[in-house]
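Today's session is about reading a structure prediction critically. Students often jump straight to the picture, but the first step is always the sequence itself: look for stretches that repeat, for charged clusters, for runs of hydrophobic residues. Only then move on to the predicted structure, which in these notes is written as discrete structure tokens rather than atom positions. Here is the chain we will use throughout the hour.
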Amino acid sequence: MTEQTASRLSCAAQRSWQSKALLLCVLLCSMFGETRASAQTGAAAPSQLVFVAIAPQDITQAQADLYERWRANIRANQPVAYAAGREYLAQYPNNEYAAYVKKWVDDYERAARRLQFQKLLIKDKQFAAAFNAGKEVLADDPGNLKTLLGLAYAGYFAQTAGDSEMNAETRGYAINALDQLDAGNKPSDWQPFKSREDALGYLHFIAGDLVLRDTPADALSSFLKALQYDGSIKTYPVIYARLAGVYTINEYEPLAKDFAARYSGKEITPESQAALDKIYGVVDKIIDAYARAVALSGDEPQYTSVRSRWLEQLTGFYKTRHNNTTDGLDALLAGVTAKPLP
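Below is the predicted structure for this chain, in token form.
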């Protein structure tokens, strides 16, 4: 072989190697590395960059270019990297380098689902859509406490807008989250709640509210637990209206029915007076609960219609304890929230 021929072959080999070299050192890294997205999601610190030498194989220039487009944009422009990665996997699914691309693409998609869930939940307040997105996030990381908190919150506020299909799942998520909190677990952050106390109060309320119709006694127990925590649930008027409703159904109505059957039309006796005093004790709790609901609802527009119903109920029960008058009712409404719950 002449020296000139050997030189031409060497140059050709060099050009071929340059294409293959793009794939010789395969970059393995976690989804976001040191990127804006990881900062937003609170993802774990990126793994170290590991370069794995892989034996050369026959590749086309197009394949090498596509791989390089993915690799070069992993940090600089992740949407471009993601598009290139998806394209690479579609065109070369069985290529030995596809496993490395797929790991990055899968991590990117998981992080994107987390970001979308938080956006729908916190920023957009599209609770039904957030609930569905959150279920996908939970499938990526089963049992994740932060995801459970978001799902319980999204499911509850979705059903207040009329979508009750997710009630059973929502209560399950709330109870699961409560179990983890009781065990000492902590989420990466407390959103959509403000703190641990805030989360515990709301989770107990959610667990109770979603069984209010079927098992009001269980609901009452959950409501009273919720109000033991110094979170925003204590200023949520709905929980007090629920309390008043449970007291009415579970305690007042059975006692009133029994009293009417046993003592109606008869002279007062020590026995009947004791029964009446017991009824009055329940009525006082109902009055207190409705008064808190009315006072805390204030002039907020979302409570306009229900506030009038709460005030009507409050007025009726108040009159039974104050000689059929409303004397003192305004004073009660002005000061009720400063008093301890009965």
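Discussion point for the tutorial: Residues 1-56 have pLDDT under 50 and may be disordered.
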